[in-house]
Structures are given as structure tokens and as C-alpha cells.
Amino acid sequence: MKKTILTIIVAVMASMPAALAQVVDQHGHAVDTTSIYGERADSLDAAVFVSRQAGNYLAKGKDIRTEVISAAGLCKMACCNLAESFENSASVTVGYSDAVTGARQIRLLGLSGTYTQMLDETRPVMRGLAAPFGLSYVPGQWLESIQIAKGSSSVINGVECMTGQINMEHRKPTDEKPLFLNAAVMSDTKMDFNIASSLQMGYKWSTVLLGHVSGNIKPHDMNQDGFLDEPKMLQFNFANRWLYQADNGTQVRFGVRAIQDRRHGGQMLKGEDGKDVMYDKDEYILDPFQAAGKVNPWGSDIFNRSLNGYLKVGVPLNEENSQNVALIADYNYQDMDSYFGSTKYLAGQHSAYANLLYQNVISDEHQFTLGLNGTYDRYDENFTRITWGMGPVTAQKNGVTDLANVGAYGEYTYHYGETLSVIAGLRGDWFYGQGFKVSPRMTLKYMPVDEIVIRANGGRGLRYSTPLVDNIGVFSTGKEFLGAYNEHILEDAWTFGGNITYYLPFGATSSTYISFDYFRTQFAQQMVVDYGRTQIDFYALDGGTAFTDNYQVDFSVDPVERFNITMTFRYTNAMQQYKGSQAPVEKPMTSRFKGVLNLQYATNLNKWIFDFTASLNGSCRVYDFMEDLKDENGNLLYKNGRTPVYPMLYAQVTRRFKGWDVYVGAENLTNFTQKDVILGTKGEDGLVNPRLASFDASCIWGPLMGFKAHVGFRFTLWK
């Protein structure tokens, strides 16, 4: 299968055509008659914001509370990939899953990104094996915008949305940009290169080709703990998207994508010849007594490959396009070969998604959507984990697992002018091995006056847990796995909340606003991952209590022309009940608060653009076994069992020329990094011994890299 995947990737890349065409209407504009993309956040309103350099803003016209990161926002920093695109947002927090693999994870409403539904133009993506590194596989410069919708949203895209949806809009085949280039290099030797080409041929056909390559030249160990701060990596990423529009308004969108990514991290020791020696999965010795006195580093070796194809067909059923049917289909194969010391996790995942829907716009006030959709995942896993307690301890799983659900849904929308919107949705899903589940959802939007927008939404979300993949950081430990780490319980959560936005009558533009949010997520069932000093226990919540309250306030103003100030503050109260406890406690490794200040100023005609972002990251409760950890001076690392509050500062200056942008910037200007990211028993050399059960490189709450500078350019050739 691996050879087949590589052969298909090479064949796809070699067969791409050199010239194609744009699909436009009689006015020269691209038209989407199918409604399968939903409301475009980068259409007229968003274009106005981009022209004024508003990188992040709340979309006033959306029924659900939606934060938009525009094309301008994606250029505020290097934004090499999706994980690095949220630094200006307090809604989404991004961190590392561990200090070895470089895997990034997000948090929305205070919960892991596994509870956030990731969408690629309404198609669910980054599921299962694709999730741990999926954020790193979406180049920021491939995107036109990102929409972050909080809470339970539409039933149309499936039932897996619990805390919200993040939808990505890619560059379009109809863009009049035959060539776009972006390249950046970081002070840590990481390099990033992107290319995009939108090509048109006649009236009906158009395509966009997207290419990406990134990697680092030299590994770093800035904190001298014997472990690389980031893994050595090399990624290739290619996509080709097509659009066909028939004379009768039918639209067909389809595309393919191929990814290959190699990561090599962990210890870097000096050999007898003075050269650096890294982890070799074939030579690694687990027994600490046999390994004593030998240069035999612990580490990780991960090889990811993916092949994706999708199809969207939208057919209008009448001339007014008030009735249409659409089909959305997606297939993804993800292959992960990963080694962590003596642990082997080799897995492949076949995923299929299909959505058939019918939409009827009865009038300006009434419309409804009916549909059928479902997902199917087949996991083929070869897992063996050997850890060292008083002797070798083994955990393993080999075989095929099928997870599937199929459901029917209906959604009714009522609009009373611009004043009131009501969206009521209901799904009924059959889950393989779990039975039939009903998921209601409701969204309300009320504008008593033009300056005030009130929104509320709520509903149920369901998803199969994949414990090992959802918590990939557990592999970067020496701990023994206990409990249900091989099971796939159906997690069940209800989320309710809303927001009120008030547009203020001052500032240089009409987009000054202040907004208040509150959302609560309550779990009826959840996979709990309970960290101990030498063991990690996986078990179902089964009647226990788990909930998260999330509060946020946003303020944005342009005090003068071309100068934008955005301030955001988020407070999270996350509680979790563990086995044997009588009451829930604060969920560990979850930041209490985050505040963000972003300043952007552009000179006349946007020739110079100055960006500055400051964030203040709140403390979190550490795991119980971390409370007595001490530094080299014998002082407690975490006073009162909490991490310190720390700042992060970013700055960038962009100079724009005709068709060219040149930018230079830096991140983590305060050079703050988490101390002692590698936990465990230390040897005579002062370094942690990763062969012992006390070893843990997954307890990450802060930045791993200090000050980093970058320089880059963007080139756009307009048609």
C-alpha cells in the first residue's frame, strides 16, 4: 500500500495541465450557485476589511458568532502554516502536544482541538490519524481566510462539532493570479516555500495548483537538555483544485492533494568521534542496564503520507436557483509510521465522507435543507509499546477497527428582515456499535437596532474517541498505559452560549465594536486521560462531571485612518472529575486566561505596514505528580501547583512594491521559554534518563523556542 500511495502521488503531480480557464458570469465574477460553500467570508464585506488591513474581526452578517481571520491577518506574521495563524486570536490557543514530535494542538472554548470540527470549505478534515499534524499541513499562504465559529453550529456538516467549527477558504481557481510565490526563512534555519497558480481556459474550466515545501537545515538544543527543541523535518505538499460551471448553472468542484512529511526528534548526543548521534529505531536499546555507557539516544521517527480526493456537485433545479441539490464526497488515506524509543505505532486510515442535500428557498423569510450524510473510518493498526518499570512492560494492539455513522437531518431557517434569524436543526444518526442518537441544534440572532447584535446557539455533539491519536503526546513518555487506550467510546457533549456585540459610534471607520461571549460545554460521556507519575490511565467518564465555562470580550477600533487596535481577553474555567474523586477539580494544563493586543498601522497606499502583537498567557494547574518538582537550586518549579503567567511579543514590518511584498519580523521578543520541558530521573550527567518510567516530555504549557526572527517575500503576478 505504501508503494502504491507514493506511485499515485508521483503520477498526480506529473499529470497536471499547464493552462486552464476561469469560470465567470456576464459581469466577469465567479458564481457559486450551489450554496455548498455557504456564505463566503471573503466576499464584499471581507474585501472592505482587508483593504483597511483588518486581520481579525467579527462578521456582523453571520447568524452564529464567527471570527474571521482575513488574508491580511494571514500576512501579519510569517504564518507558515495553520497552527501559526491564530496568534492574534484569544479564541483559539495553540500549543505543542509534546517536546519531541513538533505536533501542534489547538484549544477552543478551553478544550482540545479534537472537539473542534475542522472544515475545508465545508468538508470535514483532520480526523483521526490526520489530526496530530494536520495543522502543520495547511500552509497559511494557501488560504484566503479562516472562519472560527463558536459553539454548536449547523447540522448539515455532521455531528462531530462540539466546541465549534474552523473553516478554511483556499485560494480559488477563478482568482486572476496566474502566479503567486511566497518564501520565508527563520533564524532557526527553518525554511518555507509556497507557490500558487490560478489558471483559466475559456468560460467553463478553471483550476488552481498549490505547492509547498518546508523543513529545517540544522537542529537546535537551545536549553541544553540533550533533546532537540524541534524535530528535524522535511515536508512536501501538493494540491490541485478544479472548477467547472455549465451553462445551466451546475457547478462541479473537485481536487486532489498529496502530502509527505518526515520528522526525526528526541535526544542528540555526542558520539565517540565527536559527531552528533540521533535516535535509530533499529539500534535502540530499552534496558537501562544494557544501554548504560553507550551512546544510544532515545527519540522519535515519524513518517506521514496522505492522499486526498474530493468532489462537489451543485445542480440548480429552477432558473431562480431557489431550489438546488448538492453532493459532497471526500476520500482520504492517511499513513503514519511512527517510532518512539521502543514503541512502534504503524497505522493506516481510510476515511470516506458523503453528504447529499436538498435546499429550498421558499421566500426571503423561509428556507429549509434536508439531507443524508455519513462518515466511515477504517483503522489498520500495528501497535507495540514496551516500557521499563521494575522490568519490561508491554502494551499492544494489532488489527482492523471500523468506525462509522450515517444520519438524516433537516434544518429550517427563518429570517425576519435584518432583525431576527432563527435556525433550527435536527439530526438522527446511527453509530456503528453504539446505536441511534438524536442531535438537536438551535441558533438565534436578534438585532433590535443596527448597532446591537445578539446571538445564542446550542446543541449536541458526538464523536468516536481515538485515544492514542487524540493524545499523541503520551508516546513521548516512559509511562505504562492502563485501561481503555484501545477502545473507541462515543464521546457526548452539549454546548450552549451566545454573545452580544455593540457597534460603537466613534473611530475613523464604522467598524468599532465591543463584544461579550459566554459558552459552556458539558460532557455526558468522555474519554479521560489521567496522568500519574509512572502510569497513564485511559477510562470513560461514565457518570462523572466534566464541563468548561468560557468567557471572552473583544474590542476593535480604528482611532485614525489606517491604524487598527484590537484587544481580546478570554477566561476559562475547565473542570474534570477523575476516577476515585468525589468532585471535579480544575483540569490540568489548561490556561486560565489569555489576553491579546494587536496594533497595525499602514502608511498611505499601504506602502509600509507595521504589525505588533502582545499576548499575556495565564497560568494553569499542573498534574499532581509535577507539584513537587524542583529546579537545579532546589526550588519548587511550580509554586502552588501552577505554571507562571508569561508574555509573548511579535512584530513585523512589510514593505509593499508593485507585485512584491518584502517582510521582516520576529516572535517571542521576550525570549521566554518553558523550563524543564523534559521531566524524569536524571543521571550523573544531569540529563533525564528516557528509559525510566518517570520520563515525560509531554507536559508542555509554554513556548519551547526562544527569540526567532524571520524574513520573507511574496510575489503576485496579476492577470
Share in helix: under 10%
Number of discrete helical segments: 5
What integer value in Å does the Rg equal?
25 Å
What's the count of strands?
37
The overall pLDDT, averaged over residues, is 87
CATH architecture: Beta Barrel
Number of domain units: 1
The percent range for strand residues is over 45%
Biggest sheet architecture: 22 strands, antiparallel, barrel
For the termini, the CA-CA separation is: 42 Å
Q: What is the CATH superfamily label?
A: TonB-dependent receptor, beta-barrel domain
Gross morphology: globular
Unreliable residue runs: 1-53
The level-1 CATH class = Mainly Beta
Give me the secondary-structure category: mainly beta
**CATH level 3 topology:** Maltoporin, Chain A
Write the layout of secondary structure elements.
Layout: H1 2-14, H2 44-51, E1 56-58, E2 66-69, E3 92-96, E4 104-108, E5 111-112, E6 116-120, E7 123-125, H3 131-134, E8 143-150, E9 164-170, E10 179-186, E11 190-201, E12 205-216, E13 232-245, E14 251-266, E15 268-270, E16 276-278, H4 288-291, E17 299-316, E18 323-340, E19 343-361, E20 366-388, E21 392-416, E22 420-431, E23 435-446, E24 452-464, H5 467-470, E25 480-483, E26 490-503, E27 513-525, E28 527-531, E29 535-540, E30 546-560, E31 563-576, E32 585-586, E33 593-602, E34 608-617, E35 646-657, E36 660-667, E37 708-717
Parallel strand pairs: 6-9, 25-29
Antiparallel strand pairs: 1-2, 2-8, 3-4, 4-5, 6-7, 8-9, 10-11, 10-37, 11-12, 12-13, 13-14, 14-17, 15-16, 17-18, 18-19, 19-20, 20-21, 21-22, 22-23, 23-24, 24-26, 26-27, 27-30, 28-29, 30-31, 31-32, 31-33, 33-34, 34-35, 35-36, 36-37
